[in-house]
Amino acid sequence: MQSAISLSLSPSSSITRSDCSVAANAYLCTPRSLRFCGLRRKVFESKSFHSLKVSTRLVPCSRESNFNKVCAALQSNGTPSKGGFDYDLVIIGAGVGGHGAALHAVEKGLKTAIIEGDVIGGTCVNRGCVPSKALLAVSGRMRELQNEHHMKSFGLQVAAAGYDRQGVADHANNLASKIRSNLTNSMKALGVDILTGTGTILGPQKLKFGKGGSGDTFVTAKDIIIATGSVPLVPKGIEVDGKSVITSDHALKLEFVPEWIAIVGSGYIGLEFSDVYTALGSEVTFIEALDQLMPGFDPEIGKLAQRVLINPRKIDYHTGVFASKITPAKDGKPVIIELIDAKTKEPKGTVEVDAALIATGRAPFTQGLGLENINVQTQRGFVPVDERMRVIDANGMLVPHLYCIGDANGKLMLAHAASAQGISVVEQVSGNDHVLNHLSIPAACFTHPEISMVGLTEPQAREKAEKEGFEMSITKTSFKANTKALAENEGEGLAKLIYRPDTGEILGVHIFGMHAADLIHEASNAIAMGTRIQDLKFAVHAHPTLSEVLDELFKSAKVKVNSSSPIAQPVAV
Amino acid sequence: MASLLQSRTPGLSFSSSLSSTPVRRPSAFFLKPRSGSRIPVVRAKIREIFMPALSSTMTEGKIVSWIKSEGDVLSKGESVVVVESDKADMDVETFYDGILAAIVINEGETAPVGAAIGILAETEDEIAEAKAKATSQSSLAPAPSTPKVEEPSPAPKLDAPSPAVAAAPAPTAAPSTPGKVVATPFAKKLAKQHKVDIDKLVGTGPFGRITPEDVEKAAGITPASKSNVAAPAAPAASVAPAAVPPKAPSSFPEIPGSTVVPFTTMQTAVSKNMVESLSVPTFRVGYPIATDALDALYEKVKPKGVTMTALLAKSAAMALAQHPVVNATCKDGKSFTYNSSINIAVAVAINGGLITPVLQDADKLDLYLLSQKWKELVEKARAKQLQPNEYNSGTFTLSNLGMFGVDRFDAILPPGQGAIMAVGASKPTVLADKDGFFSVKNKMLVNVTADHRIIYGADLAAFLQTFSKIIENPKSLTM
Lengths: 573, 479
What we know:
Structural class of chain B: alpha+beta
Shape of chain B: elongated
GO biological process, one term (chain A): response to arsenic-containing substance
Distance between the termini of chain A: 29 Å
EC number (chain A): 1.8.1.4
Protein name (chain A): dihydrolipoyl dehydrogenase
Helix content of chain B: 10-25%
Number of helices of chain B: 10
Structural class of chain A: alpha/beta
Organism (chain A): Olea europaea subsp. europaea
Shape of chain A: globular
Number of helices of chain A: 19
Strand content of chain A: 15-25%
Largest interface: A-B, 42 and 40 residues
Radius of gyration of chain B: 29 Å
Oligomer: heterodimer
Keywords (chain A): Chloroplast, Disulfide bond, FAD, Flavoprotein, NAD, Nucleotide-binding, Oxidoreductase, Plastid, Redox-active center, Transit peptide
């Protein structure tokens, strides 16, 4: 964030300054914040070089800070290029994906509009990652304060820790609205047109928005991006009443803390909520359809995570069962969950609890999009796309000028993946071919301690190695050997590297331990940039930091090729 | 991944048809070490699960957690228990199919490598027998563990009518029939921990469910005990095979501001040995010895690198050579074990711990070699590189606090040895000889603690007399 700070030091008008700092704040929530801040600084620098006098809103248009373009941008957010369209780009859905695409589009000089029928920020900001981080921040502290042993080992004495539910809920809510306004301001600051209402595609390059009915407005756009996201998936037979049987949407409001809650699904969402609820004193019962908890995680990491996050806590679980029917609490009866065997469908008894949280996954939100107008058939609700996010119609043909990013295409249902896909699409429509490497997108689960991963899991890598006939190796390091982790009394943790010893290519990295979510990026960047382990070994890490866990991990890998010198390319001196 | 070393206790054989147990287990037959035939006669086996040696330096391991519970069906290659070695936590797999009949060493407890930590039964029918075995395993002491969970098998039985589907259901088997027991997750955990039969409890929670408080009440724990979370319990002085049950965290009055520092491994070992020593009937005999001659000798040989420790060890060794009973051990309370060599262990305080490097064959080595050897041992002890045989092979222990000015003290006899000698400071003392002449001589007090099952007062007196003669006339030491 240093770059953001230096922003306000540049000799610009006061209006500009305040605008920018608002915008810079907004970037805090996006993974690309630094890059954008850096970019803006560049604009400012060039401005001061040219002694441009700008008193209105300043908008960065291109990497070169072309003088003309800057001026053009000052009037509005670009002018539509030839072809008689209202906009160069219209994005349906102002979640994190749409927001990322819009910012990048403005940067590319495209005239951009974004349609939102609900609140800016989408699921992530309003009902997902953001408020849940607020709750998890609380749960992390509660956990620490309640752990007498942990505190004593620091020599600290803490009287019984308690919490005020409303205070916790307010924190989550305040955070969401703060991030939401940051996001809105950042788009307004750049001059993105925010169109309110439901967006419907009428045909190629044509769509309407509004509340439905006659009041709708028609617009044309050279390119359209669908970024409508997803909603919590509620399987059949489950009656959500929003009080005792809830989804993550309700849970994040934290309207009550049940004594005993069943969480259906033990993926990221379920796991994070179990962390929150147990820290606040609830007991938790997991109901998982697969044979093991935490499917999707690397099995070894999952196992360790279970030992730390499940077994010692007030949690039990039923695996290999479906919740076939869930009846909310009423008439003096508890919530009743009927279980059936996931394979044989035979009844497996019932569970009676105070509340049930449905965390079985998310379903794409694509209704009312008008996909039928362009002959696109969703698959289980998802919009089919190719590797460049181009929408595929019912005949398997590409629909020109139509893209779909984020949860709606189901490729990788993560906020930052949506944003990355959006940027990739904007690159394409501005004439640069770009294919996003999904294997370089990290994922994180913000339990205490955190879990993070990028690339392939061990079984996936093994399968790939077998199929493609290469050798695969694994190396691991423990947080127990890390000075910083030990200083924090958080030695529990493991980092695992899956790689090709013949080339030094990273296939996957999995981390379980303190701040794992922040540590993964060294690996994900390396995958994205194609950096080899033999080169990473020369990178220096500050001591003592948690990042040394990865340093050690890379150093412990046995790569058979000689390291290429870090200064292979000619360097201007 | 390590695998358990398991012993076979070839049990009684019984015949049963496979269909009686819904669990698929045929593979067990193929794995059985030496059942040549595959006749449909099941040979019953009860196996002990041993604490594995996970590294070359590992002498004991701590059970981090049992992945399986008593009554769980295990198949070959499945992880059963997580063991913490000196290096890492490792999942330990089973070599055999079977049922985990009993857990001998509970979570958080420590066991030496090779000790039985659990019992594996091959069939359900053997569980009871296996349990009995487990009880005898931990027989030495109270063993409060076993008379609980009479039948951990009802869960499998419930499933019996259904075909052999089940990839063993969730460990905490759900109360599956109506009119069943509803207990919260933590209540179930507590019940397991405190061996409370949850089926017999009456729930007082909402909708009649069993709450953690109900279980605590049934287990006789004052609910106000502790909040939840923390349960890491500093390893309860490790495992004297069946040490104190975790239940008795005796209620010392809490003094505000006190800090709790868990034992290091070495301190744990010391603590364990000290507690064990209580089972040996000991007695003490003291003896004053004039040391002028010894002091003179010491002054002479000091420049050659000879230390007082070496002089004392050599003297003790020479005296022991004449009194083999003092160098003997009582292993079983029924016999003398005469040791073939005289190995003098010398107590050394080392940053917060205590270790006893051993001067082996101290009677045979000359003073100079002994001093040399001692120097090496101390170096190694400081670097924590002592090999086990360099600190646990002693037959007699020497403890010297003389250099601190202590004039006499009383040593605790370490388990496995017959006697220990406590040496006080040598001080100028006024003596009257038989003719009534006074003189001032240096004198030190030695005090020997011995195991009275094998060493009697007269033995010790005779030994001390010999010892004092050697000290008072130390020429023989240099020969």
